[in-house]
Design brief:
Blueprint: E1 3-6, H1 14-25, E2 30-33, E3 38-43, H2 47-57, E4 66-68, H3 72-75, H4 83-92, E5 97-102, E6 118-122, H5 127-136, E7 140-144, H6 157-164, E8 170-173, E9 183-186, E10 193-196, H7 201-208
Parallel strand pairs: 1-8, 2-8, 4-6, 5-9
Antiparallel strand pairs: 2-3, 3-7, 4-7, 5-6, 9-10
């Protein structure tokens, strides 16, 4: 049965963040808020927790995973960054963007796209997510909480509790988080390629003019 923490969306309680970190370090799967939706998360080196997330979402082997980082310095440990990519990410983050980049050897193969060897990178602009990443001091694997057969992520933490309390270890309730897909930017080539127009697209468009 999942633990359920009502956490302040703007000033998350440090004791609840510490308990969330402990649950992750014990191999837990959590539901947490980001700037675009609620999402499932676990530590990147926890193979069993990752497989649990795969089962919850019924994800195939070719699903593009996201590595959620605290800041740009942490990002640099896991992907290959050109000067242009570094400048663009710095200008847009934290924010609702997913950057597709070539993974380094630090990223487990199970998190990479199997043929392209890429990984999606996120630096979310949400106080709870930022507090948790800072306390854990390592990135998290995360995927949007879209359940099988559905097209949008669950937004209401009470509904999440009803549907997932036996499948996850912790739900961080930061209130309603409406689903707004991130803007996805492929930075593996010489020129940024927009894979999906989502939240924050207007800001990106203005930067690329």
């Amino acid at each position: 049965m999942a633990q359920y923490f009502e956490i302040h969306p703007d000033n998350p309680q440090p004791r609840l963040i510490r308990r969330a970190v402990e649950i992750l370090q014990r191999g837990g799967v959590i539901v947490w808020p980001t700037d675009s939706s609620y999402a499932l998360a676990c530590r990147i080196d926890d193979k069993k927790a990752l497989e649990r997330i795969r089962r919850i979402r019924q994800l195939g082997e070719k699903h593009q995973f996201s590595l959620v980082c605290r800041d740009l310095a942490q990002v640099g440990q896991f992907v290959r960054l050109s000067n242009e990519a570094h400048r663009l990410i710095k200008a847009l983050t934290p924010g609702p963007y997913t950057f597709i980049l070539k993974a380094t050897h630090e990223v487990p193969r199970r998190l990479q796209h199997p043929s392209r060897k890429t990984i999606g990178i996120r630096i979310p602009d949400h106080p709870v997510a930022q507090a948790l990443l800072a306390a854990l001091d390592e990135p998290l694997f995360s995927t949007t909480l879209i359940l099988p057969g559905e097209e949008t992520a669950l937004a209401d933490p009470y509904e999440i509790r009803q549907r997932l309390e036996k499948q996850v270890d912790l739900i961080l309730d930061a209130g309603i988080v409406p689903y707004e897909p991130t803007t996805v930017i492929d930075l593996t080539g010489g020129v940024p390629e927009i894979r999906r127009e989502g939240k924050g697209y207007e800001r990106l468009e203005a930067l690329l003019r």
